[in-house]
Design goal:
about 160 residues; alpha+beta; Nuclear Transport Factor 2, Chain: A
């Protein structure tokens, strides 16, 4: 079963519910499938040592925990490659370079006294072999939102690894 879960993670045929319908109810099946998939992703993506994996499997029989661990060890590199492929397929665009400037807007055509700091951010993004410049001007709140979004995206990427 664990090998079939890894097969599913790697883009091949996942385990079929009908093969295990006499062993687990539908709810148990879905919970087990979700748990094993998450465990394999987390263990490989975060390079978790065997002891921590076994600790996460503490509710299972020792023989079952060892079986899961042996599948994880045997197919570690295959899972890692599949997670990296999935991560890199999210977008073909890659950041090549960036530049930024801090500016202070003293006034505008609507307000005589503004005193607002602005960040001018220039990104050089390579997509499908072509380099595309992207320029944006952000105020303090927009910079905070951008940073939060990038941190959240990084967290997702790290979970997929």
């Amino acid at each position: 079963m664990c090998h079939r879960v890894v097969d599913g993670l790697c883009g091949r045929e996942p385990p079929c519910r009908s093969d295990y319908s006499t062993t687990w109810s539908l709810e148990e099946w879905l919970q087990l499938l979700d748990f094993l998939t998450s465990l394999f992703r987390l263990a490989v993506g975060n390079d978790i040592p065997d002891e921590e994996v076994l600790a996460k499997l503490s509710d299972a029989d020792h023989s079952h925990a060892e079986a899961v661990l042996s599948v994880l060890r045997a197919r570690w590199e295959e899972i890692r490659r599949a997670l990296l492929d999935r991560t890199s397929s999210i977008s073909s665009a890659t950041l090549q370079d960036f530049d930024w400037q801090l500016k202070l807007a003293l006034s505008s055509d609507k307000i005589s006294s503004l005193n607002t700091p602005l960040i001018s951010l220039c990104l050089d993004v390579r997509e499908n072999g072509a380099l595309r410049p992207i320029t944006m001007e952000l105020n303090r709140e927009e910079v905070s939102t951008l940073i939060s979004s990038l941190e959240a995206a990084n967290k997702v990427v790290l979970q997929l690894k």
